[in-house]
User: What shape does this take?
Amino acid sequence: MTLAKVFERVTHGADVPVEFAAYDGSRAGRHGSDIRVEIRSPYAISYLVRSPGLLGLARAYVSGHIEVRGDMYTTLSTLSQTLEKISVGDRLRVLAGVLDDPLLRAAAATRLDPPSVEAPKGGKLRRHSKRRDAKAIHHHYDVSNRFYEWVLGPSMAYTCAVYPELDSSLEEAQFTKHELVARKLGLEPGMRLLDVGCGWGGMVMHAAREHRVKALGVTLSKQQAEWAQKAIAEQGLSDLAEVRYMDYRDVVESGFDAVSSIGLTEHIGQANVPGYFAFLNGKLRPGGRMLNHCITRPDNLQPSIRPDGFINRYVFPDGELEGPGYLVTEMNDNGFEIRHEENIREHYAMTLRDWCRNLDEHWDEAVSEVGPEIARVWRVYMAGCRLGFDRNMIQLHQVLGVKLPESNDAGMPLRSAWGM
Assistant: This one.
């Protein structure tokens, strides 16, 4: 059986807008399509047979046994709609066809190691211990600051932006996000801000530059901290802004006027969520505000972690997503009065669109900088996440809380003061 015949069996001969080409010279699908999937080696079958579904496809792509020509988001969107229609019987018939071919049968029987960029297992370290969290953060963030500059753009903000208009640029949207957080927190000159999981210091520098706030950021990525401290010095903000290479749980200062957590909650683990909110509550003065900004699942009906999933293995080791209701409840039950909540998942789909475009525009440079496997991981990961936000498989929630003083005066305006 040619690989083209396999493709035709999978799609039931439908006119799928994808051109399929294989190393054996066979062709299928729509000739001349903007999307072209190439099977470069029979060993792609080994990954697909041993790890059915997205993980096998991802391994075959990351290792270079499968190539995708054209927009990755469009490819994933188109193929996912086709693959969702495949029945168990279809899969068995395809597998039978593969086993009938000696070359494909031999390839399927060959056990290949996962691509080398797959995250190492946590070993005996307890999940979300300080040492294991540091290893997980190092795997994802200490790739290359230059690579992140190409993907994220000048803002170096690796979190959901907020687009004031449909045609706003990524930089405008990231500025708007930081300003939205600042307004929700009610930042004013002279205040003290703690930004946990601060990344490359975008929120820290925004608070210092735009609101004259004394801001402290902490990150478990050494490369992020070094980049941020250099940027702070270059912008003349060293008297107000600081980024430290440290675990947020090791911050000793307290009495902050505000706390921002933009993209950290996904890393801490569901079991640690109550303690996380309680700890940050303890860092605030009475009347202080906290803004929690993080990716969530739409509900709490599915497991918070998928250990064998592509993202957990390649992108965010030990990452866990909770439903928004759970986060609001735990934030409320650990000392915060909830004052505002919103879901901005559409904005994250737009953010990922722009990051994907940036990577495509710098593709050759990115491959030269970090290697083809890491570049491929990022290409499929960001396109897949964009699809997830578009289809409401994942969401992005901002939750604002206040640590009430004894007077119970929250110090909040009668209506929202941010207007964004």
Observations:
- The longest helix spans residues 372-390.
- Residues 130-402 form a domain with the Rossmann fold fold (CATH 3.40.50.150).
- Residues 328 and 374 are 35 Å apart (CA to CA).
- The mean pLDDT is 86.
